[in-house]
Amino acid sequence: MVSTGTMMAWGTGFVVAAAMIEAWVLTRKPNANFDWNEVMLSFADLIGRKLLAFLPISLAAPIFDFAWEHRIHTMSMHSVLAVLLLFIGQEFCYYWYHRASHRIRFFWATHAVHHSPNQLTLSTAFRLGWTGKLAGPAMFFAPLVFLGVRPEVVMATLMINLLYQFWLHTTWIPKLGWFEYLFNTPSAHRVHHASNAEYLDANFGGVLVIFDRLFGTYVEEREDVPCVYGLTTPTRSRNPFVVEFEHWVSLGRDVLKSKNPLTAISFILRPPGWNPEGRGQTAEELRQQANAKMKVKVKVHA
Ligand SMILES: [Zn+2]
Ligand SMILES: [Zn+2]
């Protein structure tokens, strides 16, 4: 069997090569507005994560060890049914991991880095944030280990999931017909990376979009609403340390200026943009503001 390390090395090599070819082709397009800085920042993220991999700071290992020690069953992966169940189970966990990464500011502090590029290209796929190992997203996949799937198998399926998502980070692949109903596609993921109020907090799936459809977070890309990529307050810095840590710094600042412990905890656990005075910039508040603006426009034109 191919080891996870070998798989990761080949996967990274392929992803980097494809991203560079795409960048080269996009730069040569007439009226190209291609930003190489965004590609470089994604490379800085990739190199940083590879270096951090040498440090024994992962929260995944102790969480997975604990779940494996207390597992209720030991799953054998020798049947098609077992592999299918693992795939669906992993997708379910991924959906909630990703949704939490957008709805809980503590997890968002890492995940926002993936959403920081102001253009959507293949290189975005490997900008995943340096602090993922510390922020503990492994806890969302621990139930699989607790049910009896070996930790290395869980990690391998997660890697395959992320590898699948690589091709979703493109602006040049159109909608794909019936494929859009079941699978995550470039069109669905463009919506996910868009900062337009209409598109915020949508399409959290990995390989599939069925859990988005099931839990009401699926939003279709609209021709009349072109995606604006990046964060609602765009990251303009070209300094990788700013890109990687600005959301942790702003979270820390909000926690420190909190008037009581409840507000401090709320800053950590509530959605990004939450404000104790109720005049924040959560997805819901931004949508309300956009709708109110739209109504004023309609009235003016009436
Ligand atoms: Zn996301
Ligand atoms: Zn993405």
Compressed to H and E, one letter per element, the order equals HHHHHHHHHHHHHH
Count of extended strands? 0
Distance between the termini: 67 Å
Q: Helical proportion?
A: 55-70%
Question: What form results from the Cα inertia axes?
Answer: globular
List each distinct ligand once: zinc ion
What is the count of structural domains?
2
Characterize the biggest β-sheet: none
Radius of gyration: 20 Å
Helix/strand-derived category reads mainly alpha
Please, what is the average pLDDT? 93
What is the fold's blueprint, element by element?
Layout: H1 4-27, H2 36-52, H3 60-69, H4 80-103, H5 105-111, H6 132-135, H7 142-146, H8 151-165, H9 179-182, H10 186-193, H11 210-215, H12 240-256, H13 261-269, H14 283-301
Helix pairs in contact: 1-8, 4-5, 4-8, 5-12, 12-13
One zinc ion binds at residues 114, 169, 189, 193.
